[in-house]
Amino acid sequence: MQSSVDKSQLIIAAQAGDTVALGCLLREYQPLIRRYAYRHCAMNDVDDAVQESLIVITKKITSLQAIAAFSSWLFVLIKRQCLRLARVSMRFEHTIDQDMEAMFATQTDQDLQRDLSKALAALPPHYLDVILLRDFEELSISEIAHRLGQSDMAIKSRLHRARTLVRNFLSENFRSA
């Protein structure tokens, strides 16, 4: 990273409306923002949190009172974005869970089996592999990661996405029925 004097000058120039300085500042801090987001966000929210944080910085840099507080301000912004994205995700999953309960209550076991088979068939192969290994073969995350040559975090992320796709498919199928 550049020296603190250079960073301070970039911040001052960005606050004055210098778009080149703002671009340099954002490029300079983006890796730090990403590392911080990895620690505070759900894995699938990291990119969104980084992007939203960079947008907020762009819009609100002129409101920063003390240049020395830039790093602290930045971390607060990122953490808020992570919390906001987590709340949005929780609300979305809650709605899907309510839909799923209604679906289970009104459909026969045969209908549910048919719909689940369709949902699984619609998954991309890399998601299908993970969900089958975890939910049908009952392998642990570490066992799946070892078998597929991936990290535990990659498998957790892939499993979460696969289950979300299945829920969405089932929910959409229920709504259209």
Question: What radius of gyration results from the CA coordinates?
Answer: 22 Å
Largest sheet: none
CATH class value of the largest domain: Mainly Alpha
Ends distance = 56 Å
Overall structural class, as computed from helix and strand content, comes to: mainly alpha
Q: Based on Cα principal axes, name the global outline.
A: elongated
CATH architecture of the largest domain: Orthogonal Bundle
CATH superfamily of the largest domain: RNA polymerase sigma factor, region 2, helix turn helix motif
**Percent strand:** under 5%
Q: Provide the CATH topology of the largest domain.
A: Rna Polymerase Sigma Factor, Chain: A
Q: Identify the quaternary structure here.
A: single chain
Low-confidence stretches: none
User: Helix proportion of residues, in percent?
Assistant: over 70%
Per DSSP, the total helix count is: 8
Description:
This protein is mainly alpha-helical. It folds into two domains: 4-85, Orthogonal Bundle (Rna Polymerase Sigma Factor, Chain: A); 107-176, Orthogonal Bundle (Arc Repressor Mutant, subunit A). Helix content is 81%, strand content 0%. The protein has helices spanning 4-15, 19-40, 46-60, 70-106, 109-121, 125-136, 141-148, 152-176. The protein is elongated and about 65 Å long.
Keywords:
177 residues, mainly alpha, Rna Polymerase Sigma Factor, Chain: A, Arc Repressor Mutant, subunit A, elongated
